[in-house]
């Protein structure tokens, strides 16, 4: 088994508990870690034998375009769609970070990390 990471994807999106956050939007960063059996791809050197990173990115982007109140919801949706659309992925970890959150103090980000396993694995 191998881990495939797509790191620090940046999005401008409309997630937050406050109505203003969902109207104005802010910057987010997403990290995805997938556990995949890459043994066949290691030998074949063929993208069809592994997970296509471009297709994963497109799914993450699509989910980031759906407004949510909670980062937990966003991360869960991303993890679920990856497990649904990419059958070779047995485990996925999603970290969604809201950059410069409006919490009344200076901080880089708040983050939620969700782990999801394929059922029966």
Helix/strand/pairing category: alpha+beta
The total beta strand count reads 4
Count structural domains: 1
| CATH homology-level superfamily | GTP cyclohydrolase I, C-terminal domain/NADPH-dependent 7-cyano-7-deazaguanine reductase, N-terminal domain
> Helicity range of the residues?
25-40%
CATH domain fold name:
GTP Cyclohydrolase I, domain 2
User: In sequence order, what are the helices and strands, one letter per element?
Assistant: EHEHHHEE
Task: Give the CA-based shape.
Answer: elongated
Under the CATH scheme, which class? Alpha Beta
Spatial strand arrangement across the major sheet: 1-2-3-4
Query: Based on the structure given, which CATH architecture is correct?
Result: 2-Layer Sandwich
Q: Which regions are unreliable across 5 or more consecutive residues at pLDDT < 50?
A: none
Main sheet, how many strands, which sense, barrel?
4 strands, antiparallel
Could you walk me through the main structural features you see in this protein, from its secondary elements to its overall organization?
The model has no long low-confidence stretch (mean pLDDT 94). This protein has a single domain, classed as 2-Layer Sandwich (GTP Cyclohydrolase I, domain 2). The protein contains 4 helices and 4 strands, in the order βαβαααββ. Helices cover 32% and strands 36% of the residues. The longest helix is centred in the middle third of the chain and has 15 residues, at 71-85. Strands 1-2-3-4 form a 4-stranded antiparallel sheet. It is elongated. By secondary structure, the chain is of the alpha+beta class.
């Amino acid at each position: 088994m191998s881990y495939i990471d797509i790191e620090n994807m940046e999005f401008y999106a409309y997630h937050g508990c406050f109505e203003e956050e969902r109207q104005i939007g802010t910057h987010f960063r997403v990290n995805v870690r997938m556990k995949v059996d890459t043994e066949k791809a290691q030998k074949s050197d063929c993208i069809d034998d592994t997970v296509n990173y471009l297709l994963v990115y497109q799914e993450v982007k699509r989910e980031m375009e759906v407004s949510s109140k909670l980062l937990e919801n966003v991360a869960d949706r991303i993890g679920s769609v990856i497990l649904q659309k990419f059958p070779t992925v047995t485990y996925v970890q999603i970290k969604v970070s809201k950059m410069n959150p409006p919490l009344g103090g200076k901080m880089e980000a708040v983050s939620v990390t969700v782990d999801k396993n394929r059922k029966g694995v």
